[in-house]
User: Fold these one by one.
Assistant:
Number 1:
Amino acid sequence: MQLLQDRIRKDGKIKEGNVLKVDSFLNHQMDIQLFEEIGKEFKRRFEGEKINKILTIEASGIGIACVVAQSFGVPVVFAKKNQTKNIAGDVYTTKVESFTHGRVYDIIVAKEFLGKGDRVLLIDDFLANGMALEGLAELVQLSGAELVGAGIVIEKGFQQGGDLLRSQGIRIESLAIIDSMNEKTGEIVFRD
Amino acid sequence: MQLLQDRIRKDGKIKEGNVLKVDSFLNHQMDIQLFEEIGKEFKRRFEGEKINKILTIEASGIGIACVVAQSFGVPVVFAKKNQTKNIAGDVYTTKVESFTHGRVYDIIVAKEFLGKGDRVLLIDDFLANGMALEGLAELVQLSGAELVGAGIVIEKGFQQGGDLLRSQGIRIESLAIIDSMNEKTGEIVFRD
């Protein structure tokens, strides 16, 4: 998606340790007009797939998922990272390892919001090692719903998550795949 | 907002300890079409206020804020609850006490996304004791931006947050204010 690649080149900042900061438009400050274009592009790519639910994970996936959901006309469910008092009862849960936060956490979805008959699209801002997305895919599987695929805004193609999940037969549509980036020169190479 | 009150009566569940569960349409599964109507209503109420930024807090505020932002044509910034590796450098921060989670946490916004010249609308799903909203208002004040007001989906009018913040001169627009609710009968009384 050219608009997105241009934006990453213009406003993305490459930091030590292969970190790409896109917090001016994607995951801290959020450019909602860009999200609308992202929604249209996912809709185009998953046309005809009869998606009836979008599943994402807190926190930075939620905003994108909600705007994307408008293109599909479906509700969003977000997996929670911590058990709260307000989610009681029956839940699907699995464990996810976060490299960003350096810990393992549970992700949780109430059973009543995901189940047989649902055709689910996963949405997230980043795909790197793939742990979060794998966790979401597992929640879908546990629920008996059908996983249509995953729409990712930025995939770090030099990390193993994308390959790993595609090899499991999951359809991944990433709007920008970064094959390499150079902290010193600021150069970013996108996959064609 | 009648549509919202009707929805709360239809799908809200009253639990022990004055908990109102609205996770089938507001803060776990999210009804995006309802969010669009909420966005139009906030736009109507804050018409002419020249709002150029919406500020919310992770996680459940984000989805509503992003859809509301489409009515205003402005970007959203969400305050983060935990310092992550990916937010370095200059931030505004304050402390918030959460009754739901039973702890005190820091909320953080990068300085580059909030500052003098901004006219900010706060958006959140719930207003109860007002701690989160007060924290957001403090971030706005620290940044030198102007606080236009707060748009709240559901206010628990029997808790002190709304009164407290209004007495500080903050304009609060709540789309549904609950004056009382009864766990046993399921009755909910909305303020006129």
Note: The mean pLDDT of chain B is 95.
Number 2:
Amino acid sequence: MRKMIQKIVMIGAGNLATQLSLALHEHGIEILQVYSRTAESAKELAGKLDCPFTTSVRKIEKNADLYVFAVSDRALQEILDKWSVPIGNSVHTAGSIPADIFENYAENYGVFYPLQTFSKERKVDFSDIPVCLESDNFKLRTDLIELAGQISKSVHLINSEQRKQLHLAAVFTCNFTNHMYSIGQKLLAEKNVDYELLKPLILETAQKALQLDPVSAQTGPAVRFDEEIMNSHEKALKDSPVFQKLYRFVSESIYKMHKGK
Amino acid sequence: MRKMIQKIVMIGAGNLATQLSLALHEHGIEILQVYSRTAESAKELAGKLDCPFTTSVRKIEKNADLYVFAVSDRALQEILDKWSVPIGNSVHTAGSIPADIFENYAENYGVFYPLQTFSKERKVDFSDIPVCLESDNFKLRTDLIELAGQISKSVHLINSEQRKQLHLAAVFTCNFTNHMYSIGQKLLAEKNVDYELLKPLILETAQKALQLDPVSAQTGPAVRFDEEIMNSHEKALKDSPVFQKLYRFVSESIYKMHKGK
């Protein structure tokens, strides 16, 4: 079957742009060109994809089937403002930006939001990553579903409000969780205990949340309101007032959630 | 080689007692008897181990090589107070209780602290679980190392201060992390988005922290101080004041950690 979207220009060369364009490239989608404001990252990604790159918005190829804007929220508006001609089919990959940011710039537009944490140095398997799509245009929406289905088994039509909530939930689930790991690591370093010891716990906690409902799987001093332990932990954090405050707050939040408040 | 600790009495029948005694049993250590205050849980575990149980401290077998106290911190002292004769070799499994709680009760004592989150319904592979040991008694310490080495590849001598810090780090890394998952789930439910969508992110965030340093792997609006997104997220949480406060606090903590404060 002929692919509806065959040639893509990738706007951006960061973590997500890198992983997404590599996944598309591996599935036979041609990345026509990479644009990035910085020559170094544009060149690096273009090298991996064996395609041309540019750092000038005016030199972006005009004949792509799709323009994927995988840039920071701030950069997105800046790049759009530099565009002199109407853009073809366009999507962005942002969690919290409405699709209609493209309204005065592109005729057909939408959102292609892969819900995952990306690093340049860590290759991810796109096939499990939920891709959340949105477009008011029937033809583009259909084409995006086909495109996403080539790289992922998990394709979802999600409206802007739901996507924004997904982004918020992802901040708790990924960014805040990672900060908890960081605090754990820092606490152990203070007493010369190897961070390695925490790793089986990190993995099991995550795996448990894939199998059991996390609310009912909650363990620890806060959920059983073990004041003695909690007081002793807060005391142990007296030299780290930020962590101490955080300890109290998260414990209170756990307790309240389980009291059904 | 003759095992130095061959016969164990398990005091407790909760999540940890269950998983630990099953692992010991599988490695040829005899669980002589299970004690629990509630007949139901004692019977359930004894059934799995095919051994007798008791709910009376006075009826606990006297000839075990080791008494493992895998009970809540509060229950530990209560059970010790009921003991009428000196106890043989004794260990507890608690993160934040010093070894010398046994001082007036047992001649030789120590700590056998497996650093993991346990549920009765989820079987864990003990071989990867760090077992943190402590004992002032050379003979018992050696025997505990041998015992732990039979069920785990990760055996560590850890003093009480380090163990307490490990417990604190584990609260952040496991209990607080699980609460972040719970919040993510609740936020999605509000907008009728399936919790399934978060699962690949939960797993990847954990796996990333096993490979990369979590501090340098931190992503999200807080670490790049993206005020626009953070304000929009806080606004979105206006009907959940506890989560809103938590959002602000964790974001501040992330930002401060990365500013090196």
Note: The first strand of chain B starts at residue 7 and ends at 11.
